[in-house]
Amino acid sequence: MNLPQPSRRHILLAGAGGLAAAALPTTAHARAADVIEPDIDGTAQWQARAPQGPIELVGKRPTKIIVHHTVSANTYDASRAQAHRHAHWVQDLHMDKNGWTDTGYHFLISRGGWITEGRHQSLSTLHGGSDFVLGAHTSGQNDQAIGLANEGAYHDGAQPPRAQWEVLVALCAYVCRQYGIAPSRLYGHKDFGDTLCPGVLHDKLPQLRSEVAASMG
Prior knowledge:
single chain, alpha/beta, 7 helices, 6-stranded mixed sheet, globular
């Protein structure tokens, strides 16, 4: 008999979530157990290139999250290695073609549900919860928003894989908790410019806000 496979979100969160739930008193609700840090591969883990210039900190907390897609191939490779290859592809594009200091996004989510740190120091400042890195993902919003980019192209009706969607929810919930951002403050790139990005993910923003709010209790 074929048993149902656990989702990528469950794989990422089961260990820490189970420990957290076991440690909580019975009066505590799911919020503290569910909103935990998902598995994020830092720039050292995927062997990112060094930035071409200094990484700037904004000096305050972000007030919103902006969702993107990278318009890369909609691969069926769900491996961690593919997530690292994608992170390199984005960094090379942003540094070599766009001439930017580093990856423009703060974090990237692969189609297999793996998260990689984009711009250097994004992960350490997220852990701190009081400051964030100046990105290069949305004109006019880079000193206000965390940029999350999803591997793939979501135009023409293409849908994100379940693993990617569930980890997007988990990462948004964690970022919201760390920075005190309300789930209602989740936006798409096209909300702030003349672009099709993030494709169908923009249509799914109401669902994303709802699922993030639910996961935060």
